[in-house]
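Q: Joint fold for the lines below.
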Amino acid sequence: MNFYNEMMDANDGVRAHYQGYDQWLKATPPERIARKRAEADLAFHRVGITFAVYGEEAGKERLIPFDIIPRIIPSAEWKALQSGLRQRVRALNMFLHDIYHDQEILKAGKIPAEQILNNAQYRPVMKGVDVPGGIYAHIAGVDIVRAGAGEFYVLEDNLRVPSGVSYMLEDRKMMMRLFPELFAKHKVAPVHHYPDMLLEKLRAVAPQGVSNPTVVVLTPGAYNSAYFEHTFLAQQMGVELVEGRDLFVKDEVVYMQTTQGPQRVDVIYRRIDDDYMDPKVFRAESTLGVPGILKAYQAGNVTLANAIGTGVADDKSIYPYVPDMIRFYLGEEPKLNNVPTYMCRKPDDLKYVLDHLPELVVKEVHGAGGYGMLVGPAASKEQIEHFRQLLIAKPDGYIGQPTLALSNCPTFVEEGIAPRHLDLRPFVLSSGKCVNMVPGGLTRVALTKGSLVVNSSQGGGTKDTWVLED
Amino acid sequence: MLSRTADHLFWMSRYIERAENLARLLDVTWQMSLVPQSLDAGNQNWNAIIALNSLEETYAKKYSEITAENVLRFMVSDADNFASIHSCLRMARENAHAVRGTITTEMWETLNATWLEAREKSFEQLLNAGISEFFEWVKMRSSLSRGTTLGTLLQDEAYHFIRLGTLLERADNTARILDVKYHVLRPHGDEGATDFYQWGALLRSVSAFEVYRKVYRDVITPERVAELLILRDDMPRSLHFCMNGVVKNLDLIANRHSGETQRQAGLLHAKLHYARVEDILEQGLHEWLTDFMDHIYMLGDGISKDFLVPMAEAA
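A: Joint structure:
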């Protein structure tokens, strides 16, 4: 397979937007690079920018490897991406509002009703509930990959509790600290205003009549894999980081327990899944959530970001319909490509997938984090057979997609600098009519040679992402 | 401030202070054991450390006899002993981790690095390198932690809860050290010749040896040691000094439930403020200190109920 290289063109020439970096890299002694890389490792460790890996010893923390070769995006490319992202997230929010209200898109027959209404992520408790500004996915992490001759594709929309933005910010901070001279030479669009932008969005969706809202970040606790990020965002926004046990509901109003007595809470940026939010409504055994919070939410006394029930729009079985949503709600043609997707619940598609397993990527409809997926070309015979059985047993639980020739970028690995595959997760923020994002996003890179899975839980690393200004 | 946040801050500072005082106590006991003394007296000193922390049962499960090495191992490196230095440093770090967004980066990095380094040290390594060196290290790390707090943290509620934890813990620990050592040194309260080295070591354990010289310019007497550690309000490890700070910080965080706790603190403070060492010794130092430690415990309890883990007002 031929891969698009972010830095080099087909004739091994350095692409225009990488030339400055390339010259710097060639002129910098390898010892200095090695020293700086070690310095970065040490700093990340001391600061404790770590994540916990599920399945490993409880409380054990690992560093996400950081690569010092940035992923650079020229201004024009970013502008096109940004406009496509705005369009897509706007349509997704309209879709969510629609399916919890009049369900026009189902009536129009654009999506089979049972696909939505029988979806485990569809939350009937949200029917008829009006949320401020009609926004459901205030924070969306849209995974973008580049394939073929360099076209961008949306791989998935993360509309529940997308994470990774703290790495985007810390990676930039680290690059500026290690190599300030690079930033003097390049006009790199800044990203560090993300927390301010987020706070502004969260304040904008406060319940009606609240002029100076109290915003909090709700975390599952110190053992969650993204705990660093939760503390980071709360600190950067200057708001309280709370756990479920710090909150209580009285007369459909949410309060937090403070040293000066109960204090009303208006907006909750929650990093807990729907299922764990309210033991009175969802999983009864959950100790992470707040009993009664759903009632307060339905009464409009508190805003949750993201809203309850967004999972139905980022489910992999719904993903193939997003281009239709854009056409239906906005009357526009989609600006970003969807990856062609075989829906295994359709007999024809299932047959095709089963016949072509060694070439395809198969994903669990509700899966996330790179768990529960098959990458055909990289899989053993046993793994393929295992998935074949899974597919036959539960076809509607899976989708199939062609294996994309993900673009790659030069990356420091043990044997020196070698190309590794990567993706991009921009963080798209919405409130009312406004959809904003900071330039770039989080670039994740698969450090294992040939691997197409970039998730940190699967040994992926990150790179600083530069959008160059004109 | 969130009650839980205040709770973590309070305990973060208590645990680091506890680790420091434990290092001080163990160090002085170790130093004392190097001065010629009867085997009996030596064992009594080590035994006192276990008794001081009410750890007799836990200790007996692991060790059959009291020896210097056993007690040191148990109190320094034993992860199963929740009162060991190892455990205190871990708890300080865990509490800091839970509020790392509230404390400054420097504070977090200090406590995190302390724990990461402590975790790497096996007891054998510590012994080989000289155990006193480790105790010095613990004291320095605690000082560093206090220093970064003072030098970087906004002096708001968070700071007051941290100070409250530090001072309450220190008051308790100084009282304990004095109680135990005083009675090992003067079992019958007689007026016999006092052992300069032993009293000197006790003073050193609370960094008071040089202070004593400066204040009294005279030989060491048990009465003056008691006076210095209990009543001097300018001696940073004395009970009076600690209670001054407790009262002040409590006033700064007061809420509508905390009146009774403030009154109790004021009462205890007044007892120190207007006390004379002759009266304390006449009452019996052990009785007096026991009563003091009970009140410190009750204060901690009151603070907890008023601020840190209030009864949920949920419907």
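Q: Anything notable?
A: The two ends of chain B are 22 Å apart (CA to CA). DSSP finds 16 helices and no strands in chain B.
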